[in-house]
Amino acid sequence: MKKILSIVLVMIIGLSLLAGCSKKEVKENTDNKEVASEKDNKKDEKKPLKIGVIYLTAEHPYYQAHAMHTQNYTAEKGIKLIELDGKVDQANMANQMENLVSQKVDGIIYCLLEGTAGSADINMAQEAGIPVITFAIKHDPKTADATFVGIDEKSAGALGGVEAANKFMAQFPDKKAKIAVIEMTGVSASTDRSDGFIEGFQSVITDAEVVVRLNGEGKKDKAMAVVEDAIQANPDINVFFGANGDQGLGALAALEAQGRGTIDTEIVISHDGSEPELLKIADPESALKIANANLPKDLAEATVDTILEIINGEREMKNTDDIFVPSAVITGDDIEAAQKFLKEQYNSDTQL
């Protein structure tokens, strides 16, 4: 009997040990599954995209508005943004491109200054597998293949030229139009918009004379200096076109310093449509009465959408399309429209 009880006891202990081992195996299997599941979840979690943006400059009101809209739009999409100020310096931009490539960003929006030099930067990034689109100033299409986003500079300039010529005829019906253009010499976008302005103006007033084309270097103080010299040599110039906002404002400042700059003496046209320009346009006494207006909100969103198309494989990295965003013409004759533009594009509540 004792022998039988011993056998039964051994069997019970053995079964207990087996059950314990089974429970341990189940627990280990469960733990392993949980670890594997966590790893799978981590694999499924996508890292946020990281996009680099090089702006031509952080000084101009236009680029400040463009940057604001880029920040807002990428934040909505959960994109990490690396923004750099190109400082209107192509050598600085080249270093910034190398920096973005070393950070292995997912894409680059590049507002370059010089087309050919910028093309070398684009090729370098693409060889590293990083897509690049150019913005505002186009790369040299002979030396790099990339998508461009901007405005049709020549057509935009022409719209402002037609509007300015009609304003001139209404304001100075007995005067001959004599034009000074203040632009960034050697920068294709600036040259194109200036050429467009002249063509538009002369399509209405065929005998309008282009007296001088000046290099304002895109800056207000430089534009003011060259216009001061120009009106000393040619005091009868009565139409001034600044190929960006600061150059238009610089021309106006030079005229005001000479006791001119009113709608009774000449007209001034600028290109950007920034808040400082619109404040002058709303002043009934000021000679600045027209601005070709880029749309920073629309352009910022278009650049982000386009680089995302390439990153997501919807557009080839070396696609060479030009994607144009419409521009507008703001005049002093419709302050309500100017006020609406200022709110929508510059997020400004300043009363004109």
UniProtKB/TrEMBL annotation:
One of its GO terms (cellular component) is cell envelope. Keywords: Signal. The keyword Signal applies. Transmembrane segments: none annotated. PROSITE patterns: PROKAR_LIPOPROTEIN. PANTHER family: D-ALLOSE-BINDING PERIPLASMIC PROTEIN-RELATED (PTHR46847:SF1). This is Sugar ABC transporter substrate-binding protein. It comes from Vallitalea guaymasensis.
